[in-house]
Amino acid sequence: MRVNIEGTSRVLPTNEIRRVTHWYGKLLLTKAKNPKIKVNIKLCNLRRKNGNMGDAVFVGNITNPTVFEVRLDRNLGRKMLLRVLAHEMAHVQQWAHGRMHDYSNGDIRWGKRRLNRRWMYRKKQWRLPWERDAINKEAVLLSLLQKSG
Fold it and tell me: I need a surface site. Which of 66, 67, 95, 115 has the fewest CB within 10 A?
């Protein structure tokens, strides 16, 4: 996996963010997928813009994405920055392995189910299946990271 980082964090040096991103990628992505993936991390004042702590999108190919952009709020504390990075890397895994697919009309396929975008807007964000999956993976990744030192 290739990792490019733009911007700086107040609490984590760039080389540590890169190391942790590679570590998350090693745990989440298969050996066949890992070398093909490129993750561009942008550290910016995200919460001031839209209230989020982080987000992830794929860039380019909608059917088999390999390039992703992860934006993280640069003002987060160390633990929260690592948590948000883990969460967004879980979304990278979902797209890269084809578990989640975005359609141009806003619908999303999760597993084998195509979910209508109007259905999604009636749900609370954390109740969407891909968010629940990412929240679970985030907790596991953080636990493993703490154990590894």
Answer: 67
Q: Note the pLDDT of residue 47.
A: 74
Beta bridge partners of 89: none
Instruction: Give the C-alpha separation, 135 to 128, whole Å.
Output: 11
Helix, coil or strand: residue 122:
coil
Q: Closest Cα to residue 56, out of 14, 19, 28?
A: 28
Q: Rounded mean pLDDT of the chain?
A: 91
Measure the CA–CA gap between 94 and 39, rounded to whole angstroms: 14
Q: What is the pTM of this model?
A: 0.92
Between 3.30.565.10, 3.40.390.30, 1.10.10.10, 3.40.50.1400, what CATH number should domain 2-148 receive? 3.40.390.30
Q: From CA 144, how far away is CA 149, in angstroms rounded?
A: 9
Closest residue by Cα to residue 84 from 30, 21, 26:
21
CA dist 25 and 10 (Å) reads 23
